[in-house]
Amino acid sequence: MKDNLVCILIGPPGAGKGTQAKNIANRYKCKLVSTGDILRENVENNTELGVQAKNYIDNGNLVPAELVAAMIKNTMELYGININYLFDGFPRDIEQNVLFEKILNEFDLSVKAMIYINIEDDVVFDRLTNRRICPKCNRVYHLKFYPPKFDNLCDDCKVELITRDDDKKDVIKKRLEVFQKLTHPLVEYYKKQNKVIEINGNKNSEDVFKNIISGINCFR
Ligand code: AP5
User: Which stretches of sequence are listed as region NMP (predicted)?
Assistant: First the structure.
């Protein structure tokens, strides 16, 4: 079995996965694979996958496991096996994990650790209803904590910021339910293997990052 760093980054919606993912990937020279980002890109470009995924995303449900697993396999075939990987938001339930372990096995890889960022439900609503995104560069802002310098414009692109379609209150509620019902059991699965780095996501993002780094270093 190869000794590459293969990590899963998981947590409730709005936990700060996307915010942390880029920094973690830079720090450990990982290829970052975010299923949410890839799916949204497909929806935007109206690909066959995007058309199939849109309804699930808009309603806060998980996109079917076989579609997401095929997407992951294609990505890994493209980037190869001699690199580190950080999977943001995948696998997301036991069914996806079975398919993921099969794929990893084919590549002679295995999961080193799951980084689980945990936050409370009321923080989730505050984070997501105040989140704004640059449609051009995908930079993520928060109106209170990480606001743009100029009213509703991306600091870098000067393009008007947008709200994600699934950041409506009823969809956030559904995403939280899906997390508890389907994703939480997967956290328990990896806990039994002593592979979970549990992080308090309620702190500021610099502290969250420091705690993630300390956690990962224990696994290296
Ligand atoms: P996905 O895109 O993965 O969304 P999510 O898991 O719901 O998480 P978010 O992207 O909403 O939040 P985040 O944790 O990245 O938080 P962020 O850093 O932006 O998935 C979307 C949908 O796609 C799913 O519902 C599903 O339909 C589908 N999908 C995706 N993956 C799938 C899979 N594997 N299988 C099936 N379907 C799948 O932070 C949030 C806000 O808080 C931002 O404004 C940020 O600036 C701010 N913030 C971050 N950290 C802090 C901090 N420490 N303090 C204060 N503010 C902070």
Answer: 34-63
